[in-house]
Amino acid sequence: MDLKDFIAIKGKSELFRVLNKSPKGIIVETLNEKRTKFKVQPNLHVLVLKDITIFSVDSSDIYLLDVYLKFYEQGGLKLELNQKSEPEAIYSFFREHIPNHDQEKVYISDMKKMLRWYHVICEFYPDVIENLKKEEDEEAEDGREGTKEIKKEKTKNLNPTSLKKASTKSPTVKKPVVRKAAK
Predict the structure, then answer these.
(1) In this predicted model, what pLDDT tens digit does every residue of 12-52 receive, in sequence order?
(2) Residues 6+ apart with CB under 8 A from 98
(3) Environment class of residue 175 by beta-carbon count within 10 Å: exposed (0-12), middle (13-18) or buried (19+)?
(4) pTM (2 decimals)?
(5) 68 in Cβ contact with 108 (< 8 Å)
(6) Residue 97: is it exposed, middle or buried by C-beta count within 10 angstroms (0-12/13-18/19+)?
(7) Which candidate, 108, 94, 9, places its Cα nearest to that of 52?
(8) Which of 22, 38, 83, 182 has CB 3.0 to 4.6 Å from 116, enough for a Cys bridge?
């Protein structure tokens, strides 16, 4: 399980885990004690946690994954800072541990939301955060060479029949039909 399995729905304060995807919507489960399941309609705005970034001053992306790794390094699964902490404590934590975030564009409500989501994931799926840390440590040890080898192995294991062959035919263009007006 990874952060790609968790979503936020615009207009709802809760966090959700994706159970199944279909063309007519996504089936999700709430991350709370009730664990209610429901279908998310395709017209709702859904945010995948893995894709969420926060504003930075140097135009680089700060992914939510990186923020959560900083949280984990600071306090583990039991981070003392939470969404009910004093705003000044939250501001100072972000200034200290994520110094390149844009302080004018990242509001206190955004910071509280990130903290609330972190605590919810740690409460219901603590292995996700621990796996993120393990993956980061493994990537740091292996370096870029290790990831290139993994990509090569994945391409070797592809089934050749599943790959589409490039067509050598030129595409056919239909000429418009011109009809003469009836007299």
Answers:
(1) 888 999 999 888 888 999 988 888 898 988 888 999 989 99
(2) 54, 62, 66, 67, 70
(3) exposed
(4) 0.71
(5) no
(6) middle
(7) 9
(8) 83
At 61, list the tokens.
């992306």
Separation between Cα atoms, residue 13 and residue 81, nearest integer Å: 19
Residue 155 has φ and ψ, to the nearest 5°, of: -70, -30
Q: Which residue has the tokens 């429901």?
A: 38
> In this structure, what are the phi and psi dihedrals at residue 81, rounded to the nearest 5 degrees?
-75, 130
Pairing of strands 46-48, 6-9: antiparallel
Beta carbons of 101 and 62 less than 8 angstroms apart: yes
> 82, 18, 19, 5: which is closest to 49 by C-alpha?
5
User: What structural domains and CATH numbers belong to the chain?
Assistant: 3-49 (2.30.30), 52-127 (1.10.10.1650)
| Cross-strand bridge partners of residue 53 | 63
Please report, for residues 3, 53, 63, 93, 146, the alpha-carbon distance to residue 140 in angstroms, rounded to integers and kept in the order given: 19, 21, 17, 25, 10
71 class by beta-carbon count within 10 Å (0-12 exposed, 13-18 middle, 19+ buried) = buried
Long-range contacts of 123-129 (CB under 8 A, 24+ apart): 124/31, 125/1, 125/17, 125/31, 126/77, 127/1, 128/1, 128/2, 128/3, 128/5, 128/6, 129/68, 129/72, 129/77
Length of the chain: 183
